[in-house]
User: What shape does this take?
Amino acid sequence: MAKILIVLYPDPVTGYPPVYARETIPEITEYPGGVTVPSPKAIDFVPGQLLGSVSGGLGLKNWLESEGHTVVITSDKEGADSVFEKELPDADIVISQPFWPAYLTAERIEKAKNLQLVVTAGIGSDHTDLNAANERGITVAEVTYSNSISVAEHTVMQVLVLVRDFVKQHQIAAEGGWNIADAVERSYDLEGMRVGVFAAGRIGRAVIERLAPFGVRLSYTDRFRLPQEYEEKYNLTFHESIEDLVKEIDVLTVHAPLTEETRGLLNDELLATMPRGAYIVNPARGAIADRDAIVRALESGQLAGYAGDVWDPQPAPADHPWRTMPHNAMTTHTSGTSLSGQARYAAGTREVLEDWFAGSPLRPEYLIVEGGSYRGTGAHSYAQQPTHSDEQQNNQ
Ligand code: NAD
Assistant: This one.
């Protein structure tokens, strides 16, 4: 029997469960490309309810305990005295979400002598030291595709929020004002703008497909080029590198994983090569951007706006400059944890656990590392690779 340590964000301050705005969520059965949604044998939760907080427990606790496993669920994850740190040494499985990541550093992995499986309930496993996991032969899996569309929708929202300058207009309305000139002095149409997409994986492609009907001019870069028919369908211009991509765009959206190659990419030098007044929407990882370079570019007017969803670290300190920098439309890493997304990644986490306990192979698209090397999605999206190869196309 296994000990499963689950780290989740705290319950709502008004208590659990919240009062739900809707009774149900639509049933989604398939992702683009014919990939099926998570398919566990059973679930113990009502889709559309809050599962990502401690009391929601990803809907796993009753099932795991009925199978004889020990389950610890906590939100207390930082520092030597935290519940996470104390429970880690004899845990067999660790589960956490990128929204409230249980940082599995090399030191923590060293302490976790029994650890065999790390599951990201969501997408993005950079909170686990993947090299250390590889050295120990630990399996790291995530629920690929579970919230990709959630993030793509959030991206489109943030693009529109920045370009149309929604936040200020809403504040004027909420505060009882009616000065239309103030409200529109930074408000533009997205139509006709040049949008560059950095990384055209599941989220990047969903953003392309959702933004195309706005009449924008789309370009992208990825280390794998998309099929020609896809490029033609969306009138996409391919660039070899992000340096080439950003020179002639009005809006940059960022959808690459955080790796040694992408950390700190959006720095002073790169931002200076963008046209003045460009916008950045980065729902991927905060650390892909140089925190202070973004602040400087907004203050100087080089950037007209920055909207992101992910911070470094999380939770972000109260005095993090991205909370107060000008023309920001930040959210607190919520894009992938809508109630709709939670239902899918909770089901996917259960599917991973069912397969793990049955000794069955995990779905290749869920695998990041296994048996000491990058596998499945990990091999495609995380492992260091040579740049563009004409033979390799982004068909994942
Ligand atoms: P994906 O694996 O489908 O796509 C990632 C793409 O990035 C791949 O096409 C890969 O080739 C490309 N890539 C990797 N390194 C690159 C590099 N150095 N240069 C150019 N391209 C590179 O993943 P996805 O589902 O599209 O998710 C992308 C990322 O978004 C995740 O890794 C995660 O960090 C983030 N994410 C955030 C949230 C959220 O809630 N904000 C939710 C899900 C995912």
Q: What stands out?
A: Residues 339-358 form the longest helix (20 residues).
